[in-house]
Amino acid sequence: MSRERHPTSADPATDFDLADILGGRRLRRTRQSDWSRRLVRENTLTADDLIWPIFVVDGERRRIPVASMPGVERLSIDESVREAERAATLGIPAIAVFPYTDPARRDELGSEALNPDNLVCRAIRAIKAAVPEVGIVADVALDPYTSHGHDGVMSSAGKILNDASVKQLVLQALIQTEAGADIVAPSDMMDGRVGAIRQALEARGHSDTLIMAYTAKYASAFYGPFRDAVGSSATLRGDKQTYQMDPANAEEALREAEADIEEGADMIMVKPGLPYLDILWRIRDAFQVPTFAYQVSGEYAMIMAAAERGFVDGERAMIESLTAFKRAGASGILTYFAPKAAEWLKRG
Ligand code: PBG
Fold first, then answer.
1. Is 217 a catalytic residue?
2. Residue to probe by mutation, ligand 1, list 51, 56, 226, 269, most atoms within 8 Å of CB
3. pLDDT in tens, 153-198
4. Which of 30, 62, 245, 284 lies at 20 to 30 Å from 16 by C-alpha?
5. Phi and psi torsions of 151, nearest 5°
6. pLDDT tens-digit profile of 324-344?
7. What domains are defined for the chain?
8. Nearest Cα to 123, choosing from 104, 99, 146?
9. pTM higher than 0.90, yes or no?
10. How far is the CA of 176 from the centre of ligand 1 (A)?
11. What is the distance in angstroms between the CA of the first residue and the CA of the last residue of the chain?
């Protein structure tokens, strides 16, 4: 290191012996140059880590901006096929498809979820035909289809019924699989749904279909913009605390993980993302199974909103947050930043 002028002080407090304190250990050595930082880097984000959630809507040549998610649009099926092609070009392994269901097609039971020609099934078929090499994740839950906005079946007293919901969810997962979904992803948090879906898939000869379980899904304020995107925020009756997890709990997430793995999940997930990195780490540490994080709509919106106002550098915040998931043990990340991040990574 070059000789520099050092501040000098007569204060005896500065009479410490730094060489003695450090004993030769200087952690800054490896940080001095780009080459050495690259050599010791512990985690690397690549396009292979990304799953891109998209929103589909009826019609043709339509791209409708989602106000609370700058840069995200609801796409008609033809446009979603174009974006799936973009995913393939960018090396993004998989996309997750969420429907904005016409409010006229929503009812108390979420019957449209069981229509084999519903929007999401048509989108899955079109994307699979055009871009077979991209994996397709289908969300299993009733909320885009119910008039009350809940993920399950509601009793007349307003209770979300577990066992009746699981029956609907199993049928929904089967029609999505038959439409061409490679991964079914139950996001409903009903008890026993992973095992029930696995049994039904095996019974119908779909033994190759993967299940990505939303394992530790918390009752979170960070889903707000998503509910705008699928049109369930205006209609949601009450909240989801009787089935989604309490943000105060961590050990319970380990019990959820144990159950989902035993019931036959191939991949598990923690959601939301950044506020729950401890959960991600604890699950990965305890179970060593492919574990994903969902950087949800509210997290995306926060970064985008702060970037738009010049409060943070949006690209750096994006890459830093995605890298944090890798560091915490994520096998991959569901993120609305997927195409932007993949483009950034391509530029190098
Ligand atoms: C619905 C579902 C939600 C999300 C994914 N699937 C919302 C909810 O549970 O209310 C949230 C995704 C996001 O906020 O980006 N079962």
1. yes
2. 226
3. 999 999 999 999 999 999 999 999 999 999 999 999 999 999 999 9
4. 30
5. -80, -15
6. 999 999 999 999 999 999 999
7. 44-347 (3.20.20.70)
8. 99
9. yes
10. 18
11. 30
